[in-house]
Amino acid sequence: MLFIQIKPLTHAAALGSCVLLASTAANGQARPDTRDMTCTQAQALVKQRGEVVMTTGQYTFERFIADARTAILARLSRDQPMR
Predict the structure, then answer these.
(1) Are residues 12 and 36 in the same domain?
(2) Residue 28 gets which letter from DSSP?
């Protein structure tokens, strides 16, 4: 009986590991690099996404925000307590 209870837990743990690996891979994507874009391309990307963190140099990055409304919404969501 104990073996049957452990088996579903093993499947859940394996599924959780797959989800964790998938999210880690998505987070591991490189930031857009302003050095590889024209000014117009960078502006279009910011306008499209509303806000974006882009690489600006070999060891630097910057957060760009499309407009004041986006900045306020980003600030409000960042300041909300974790649940």
Answers:
(1) no
(2) T
**In total, how many domains does the chain have?**
2
Structural domain containing residue 4: 1-30
Specify whether 35 is located in the same domain as 61: yes
- Whether 55 and 61 have beta carbons less than 8 Å apart is answered as yes
Task: Kindly state whether residues 51 and 71 are assigned to the same domain.
Answer: yes
0.85 exceeded by pTM: no
Which residues lie closer than 8 Å to 46 by C-beta, 6 or more apart?
52, 64, 65, 66
DSSP character at residue 31: P
Q: What is the pLDDT of residues 3-40, one digit of tens each?
A: 444 444 455 554 454 444 444 445 567 899 999 999 99
Structure tokens at 13: 């743990």
